[in-house]
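INFO worker-7 received task bundle
INFO bundle size: 2
INFO processing item 0
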Amino acid sequence: MKKVPAVAEVRVSLKDGLTLLDLKPGNSTTLAALRQVIKNNGFVSKEATVVARGAAVGDDVFVVSGTNERLELSGPAQRKGEDWTLVVRPPKKSATLTFLPQKPDSSLGRPVTATIPCS
């Protein structure tokens, strides 16, 4: 995580299974990008507590200023001045399925792959 340009400081608690990230002011990284780094390093990203600026859209979505990333919330966002504290749902699991044409002379002529979110 230290190699991510937006990250100012990383603190890890192996006991609690937590990674705490302090991001540089004015960064434009997304939670999705950070979660991808976590996944690429062999770890699983779970629910995240985030402090961000942006706008709550109802009780279950928050749009981050600057990146317009839409975060799915586990509960309502709490405003503190210009900042919001959010609890963001873990990434949705997905399954990749490959569909084979039923006939060799099918108009598709090749397998079709789809990634389908699972709840």
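INFO item 0 finished
INFO processing item 1
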Amino acid sequence: MCVKSATQRWVGAVASNCRGYAPSVFREYVEAISGSDLVTCIDILEHIEPELLENVLLELKRLHGRLYFFTIHLGPAGKTLSDGRNAHLIQNRCPGGLLAFANTLI
């Protein structure tokens, strides 16, 4: 489950076994959370470099979740990166890689 601490606390209040991870240390958590009932990415994927999105989705698929729930904010963020780009690197359209990922789960 990819969660911010506030989301993790909320989900943890209704689910007895809620674990979060930081994408920067993803590999350390794959074994611990593999086979989860629910894998979520809430307002995370829009921050991924578009050319790396497929790699991230393949890593998420390795979790062997029973159910995946993603939200992607497709509008601009209120913040910019140090190189001047908007912090939401994916905007205005659902990434094709995400649709392809969803089809592999069916």
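INFO item 1 finished
INFO post-check item 1: The helical segments are 5-14, 26-33, 53-61, 96-105.
INFO post-check item 1: The beta strands are 38-42, 67-71.
INFO worker-7 idle
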